[in-house]
Specification:
The protein is 29% helix and 27% strand. The chain is α+β, with helices and mostly antiparallel strands. The chain folds into 2 domains: 81 residues, YhbY-like (Translation Initiation Factor IF3); 41 residues, no CATH class. The strands form 3 sheets. The protein has a 4-stranded mixed sheet, sandwiched between helices. It has a two-stranded antiparallel sheet with strand order 5-6. It is elongated, with a radius of gyration of 29 Å.
């Protein structure tokens, strides 16, 4: 799978975004193994832009690892500086499926309470939960009455 080709401006932008990042994957003395490649792939899928640190003093070997990762994972090589490698791959958008059985969550409501004529109304922020409703007087009530215990009803 060939790596992604970027324009110099895109590469510069990704390099600037990667500046503050810490290395996510560390490649040790064993070099590039299948497990390490799998971890780099998972990090690219999760983050998109990652740094990889290679603990190897041979620059040619680091460059080979860099190109091999870019080719094998379909990523764009952004920067190779010292022992740090920066790779980028676009993150796939997740498909969100709406759950039909899901109830509405909390919502924030502004309630205006009017006083005397000529005065400003009092504004209250209320949080109404999914099992509550707001009355016309600005009070919060349960949408359904609270369930009563069968055992407590029999004790009386």
């Amino acid at each position: 799978m060939p790596h992604i080709q970027l324009t110099p401006a895109e590469r510069r932008e990704h390099r600037a975004n990667a500046h503050h990042l810490d290395p996510v994957v560390l490649i040790g003395g064993d070099g590039l193994t299948a497990a390490v490649q799998k971890e780099v792939d998972a990090a690219l899928a999760a983050h998109g832009l990652i740094k990889v640190r290679v603990f190897n003093d041979d620059r040619v070997a680091r460059e080979a690892i860099y190109q091999q990762l870019a080719d094998a994972l379909g990523a764009a090589p952004i920067q190779h500086i010292g022992k740090l490698l920066v790779l980028w791959r676009p993150v796939a958008q997740k498909q969100k499926t709406p759950d039909e059985n899901r109830k509405p969550g909390p919502r924030d409501v502004k309630v205006l309470k009017f006083g005397r004529p000529g005065q400003r109304p009092e504004v209250k922020q209320l949080r109404v939960l999914g099992n509550q409703r707001l009355t016309t007087g600005g009070q919060i009530k349960r949408a359904k009455p609270k369930q009563k215990s069968v055992k407590k009803g029999q004790a009386d």
